[in-house]
Every structure is written in C-alpha cells, then in structure tokens.
Amino acid sequence: MTPPPPSPRRPYATPEPHPSGVRPPVLPDGLTPGHVAVLMDGNGRWAAQRGLPRSEGHRAGADVILEVLAGCLELGVRNLSLYAFSTENWKRSPDEVRFLMNFDPAVIRRRRDAMDALGVRIRWVGRMPAVWRTVVQELQVAEERTRDNDAMTLYFCVNYGGRAEMADAARAMAVEVAAGRLDPAEITEETVAAHLYHPDMPDVDLLLRPSGERRVSNYLLWQAGHAQLVFQDVLWPDFDRRHLWRACEEYAERVPRARRP
Ligand code: IPE
Ligand code: IPE
Ligand code: MG
Q1: Is residue 220 lining ligand 2, measured as CB closer than 6 Å?
Q2: CA of 167 to the centre of ligand 1 (A)
Q3: Are 165 and 197 contacting, i.e. CB atoms less than 8 angstroms apart?
Q4: Which of 42, 68, 93, 205 could bridge 236 with an S-S bond, Cβ 3.0-4.6 Å?
Q5: 261 alpha carbon, distance to own chain's centre
C-alpha cells in the first residue's frame, strides 16, 4: 500500500501546522491511502450562500489547496489528485469558463514556490487540445520546475474527463495498430493503462467528494475502478485537513473488510 517515504533529495520545508494545533490521526500500518483523489466541489454554492459571485467561491476554494497538501504531507499520503476543471465544465457560462481558464494556472503560479519548497511534484492531467496556450505553458513550467521533487505528487486535473482519457488512449492504440506496431489480439488492461495520460499514476485508493453531491462526475474512471468512495457534506471552500483525515480514517476502517476473502 504506502511505501516508506524515500529520503528527500534536499531538506524540504515543513508544512504549516493547522491553526488549531490538531495532529494527524495514527492509522494502522499499511492503511494510509497511497493516492487520494478529490473533486473540489461546492464553490458556487459557498458563494451563493454569502450573496457573492461564483468567482469568489473559486477564489476561496483555491486557498484550500495548500491546506490539503499540508494534510497529505502530515499524514503520509504520497499522491493527491485535484479536479479543477472537467471536460464538461466548458458548458458553463462563457464568463465562468473564461474566469476559470485564467484562474487555474494563476493558482498554480502563485503557489508554485510554496509547493516546490514542500517537495511537491506538480503534474498536469488533462486533454491538451482546446486548453488555452497560456494555461498549458503555466502548467508545463510548474511541471518542469518541480520534476525532481519527491515528498509527494500533486496531479492537477484541468480539462480532464475520464471518458476523454479513455478515448484518447483508444485513439493512441489505434494509431499503433494501423502502423503495425501493436497486435489487437494482444491488447490487455495493461496496454490500455500504458496509454493513459500518466501511465505511472498509481491507482486511486480513496475518491473523496465534498459538497454533498454523491456523483463521480467522470473523474479518474479507470484509475478509481477499485477506490473507496467517501462523500462529505462540507463545501470545498470550508474544507480543511481535518476533513481529509476523517476520510482517510474511514478508508482505514473499510479496507480490511474489503480485503477479506
Ligand atoms: C467546483 O465548484 C469548481 C469547479 C467545478 C470548477 P462548482 O463551481 O461546481 O460549485 P457548485 O457545485 O456549483 O456549488
Ligand atoms: C466536478 O464538479 C468537476 C470538478 C470538481 C472540477 P462539477 O460541479 O463540475 O460536476 P457536476 O456538474 O456536479 O457533475
Ligand atoms: Mg459543482
């Protein structure tokens, strides 16, 4: 499940503790999820409750990212995926799409140094065509800058859709078949996995959705095939590391039951 953390390449910064002083729970050996995937949902409702525009909800939600990374580092979660913009989110109003497409790379840019200091490797997950050039550049700069960090990996999902990822994998395999490099009879689950956006991304152990919605919304459909699902009623801008830890405790309680023959 969770391998022991490798010795860091260089001394990394220690994450800021939670203001309440709360410490992470102690989970039984081998029951810390290695990969937690979170749908950052509920920003619009959070803003509406306060009579604010939706963009203010997105701003407040972005402030939670470092908090959750701190929670992962303190608990020992080595991989975190965050769903920032889905392939379906293009259907939102042009104003909101424009806001988010400018905002998501700015979020990464503003937090890049802090994440780098913590030893976080940033990787973009998503479909390249259609994403604005400026967004791609910003994400690629962050990837390049943090590529050797090994305290943990953040998979930042922008223009991501599970079905799109599988369609892209199918297309890539079809190209290889047409070129005579791949025998259709030999396509296995491993072949498909090798054509996903990041073939080395570990399977999702815990899929976490705040905001009270109980949907998967096309998130990491292949990688989360065996994930534990946890739904919480908190809206994303109100989320903090204690919610993450509670979900991980629930995961640690459930997994031994799932592993029973
Ligand atoms: C999540 O919050 C952020 C994105 C999907 C970009 P929403 O914008 O979906 O907020 P709600 O679900 O409408 O409250
Ligand atoms: C899922 O949230 C996508 C992200 C968190 C980026 P949405 O709010 O877009 O999903 P639906 O519309 O509830 O399925
Ligand atoms: Mg939503």
Answers
A1: no
A2: 25
A3: yes
A4: 42
A5: 30
Q: Mean pLDDT across the stretch 232-248?
A: 98
Is 237 close to ligand 1, i.e. is its CB under 6 Å away? Answer: no
In 10 A of CB 75, how many CB atoms? Answer: 21
Each as own residue / partner, the long-range contacts of residues 57-60 (CB below 8 Å, 24 or more positions apart, any chain) are 57/237, 58/99, 58/100, 58/103, 59/103, 60/237
What value, to the nearest 5°, has the Cα angle with vertex 16 and ends 13 and 17? 130
pTM exceeding 0.90: yes
The angle subtended at Cα 254 by Cα 225 and Cα 85, nearest 5°, is 45
Which are the catalytic amino acids?
A: 41, 89
Closest-approaching ligand to the CA atom of 83: 2
Residue nearest to atom 12 of ligand 1 (CA): 42
CB 60 within 8 A of CB 44: no
Ligand 1 center from residue 42 Cα (angstroms): 5
Residues 2 and 225 sit within 8 Å (Cβ to Cβ): no
> pLDDT for 170-179, tens place per residue?
999 999 999 9
Q: What is the pLDDT of residue 130?
A: 72
Q: Which residue has the tokens 């604005």?
A: 132
Closest ligand to Cα 219: 2
For ligand 2, atom 2: residue with the closest CA: 41
**What are the angstrom distances between the C-alpha of 90 and each of 86, 99, 100, 104?**
8, 11, 10, 14
**Starting at the edge strand that comes first in sequence, how are the strands of the sheet with 35-39 ordered?**
120-125, 152-160, 79-86, 35-39, 206-209, 228-231
Residue 150 pLDDT level (bands cut at 50, 70, 90): very high
Write the residue with the smallest CA distance to atom 10 of ligand 2: 217
Report CA(238)–ligand 1 centroid distance (Å).
13
